[in-house]
């Protein structure tokens, strides 16, 4: 099943008299269980594409489907629903709440989803164990390394069992070793069948995924399916 599909997506920004074509007819799909890496130089349209894939913005033209439901014509409120139920976000800057423990941070999306206290504690623990932080659940973000904080953020993103994880430069604020930790977690999650979409300019991630989509000047320059390693 296609988790996500873009058909001829255009994004045109109006800047006074000038029109900036940030995306110019982008089409691709991500299948269930795929690990897609979207890579491209600065200015190629990655952030714009990320906003659209994350249902944070709508295309000027073209269509987007998430699990075969067209989201490109949805009203903002409906779009927020899709965002909360279907997408697990991972950001460069972790975005954890500093006063809450790792466990409480992971529980947050479950609170919003109305999951009972007992059940959400159970799920949050499970997710933290999955990312190798079973022994750190009561630590606050400041008591954790950058790599560990990002792992909490990944556990939080997984808590609602989203259709896919959408990561924005997940290794961008990390040193090489912590970055490698995150890549290992992503590999493991993908091996378990999770669908991952990572937007990055980190060339180290080039061969990580099962599919690499290269953006240039708002267009897809190439899509390479990686048959070695991840499948
Ligand atoms: P990347 O993330 O790859 O650097 P962006 O999506 O940020 O690419 O930018 C693609 C193009 O769109 C650039 O020319 C950028 O200046 C322009 N752009 C991005 N966001 C806006 C905006 N809000 N208003 C006007 N132009 C924008
Ligand atoms: P950076 O790492 O470049 O500081 P982020 O990766 O945190 O930025 O955010 C990337 C984009 O996602 C931004 O455009 C921002 O508006 C949006 N964003 C950041 N945090 C959230 C959030 N918690 N919920 C929804 N959108 C967010």
From TrEMBL:
It holds the Pfam family ABC_tran. GO terms for cellular component: membrane protein complex. Residues 4-231 form the ABC transporter domain. Keywords: ATP-binding, Nucleotide-binding, Transport. GO terms for molecular function: ATP binding; ATP hydrolysis activity; transmembrane transporter activity. Belongs to the ABC transporter superfamily. PANTHER family: CELL DIVISION ATP-BINDING PROTEIN FTSE (PTHR42798:SF6), LIPOPROTEIN-RELEASING SYSTEM ATP-BINDING PROTEIN LOLD (PTHR42798). This is Peptide ABC transporter ATP-binding protein.
């Amino acid at each position: 099943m296609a988790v996500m599909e873009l058909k001829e997506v255009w994004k045109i920004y109006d800047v006074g008299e000038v029109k900036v074509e940030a995306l110019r007819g982008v089409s691709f799909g991500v299948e269930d269980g795929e690990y897609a890496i979207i890579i491209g130089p600065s200015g190629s349209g990655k952030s714009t594409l990320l906003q659209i894939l994350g249902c944070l913005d709508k295309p000027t033209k073209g269509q987007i489907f998430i699990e075969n439901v067209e989201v490109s014509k949805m009203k903002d409120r409906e779009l927020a629903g899709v965002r909360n139920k279907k997408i697990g976000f991972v950001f460069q800057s972790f975005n954890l709440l500093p006063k809450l423990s790792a466990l409480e941070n992971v529980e947050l999306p479950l609170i919003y989803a109305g999951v009972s206290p007992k059940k959400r504690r159970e799920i949050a623990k499970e997710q933290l164990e999955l990312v190798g932080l079973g022994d750190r659940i009561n630590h606050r973000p400041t008591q954790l390394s950058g790599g560990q904080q990002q792992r909490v953020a990944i556990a939080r993103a997984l808590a609602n069992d989203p259709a896919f994880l959408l990561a924005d430069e997940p290794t961008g604020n990390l040193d090489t070793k912590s970055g490698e930790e995150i890549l290992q977690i992503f590999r493991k999650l993908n091996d378990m069948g999770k669908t991952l979409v990572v937007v990055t300019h980190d060339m180290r991630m080039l061969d990580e995924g099962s599919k690499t989509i290269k953006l240039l000047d708002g267009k897809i320059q190439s899509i390479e399916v990686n048959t070695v390693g991840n499948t």
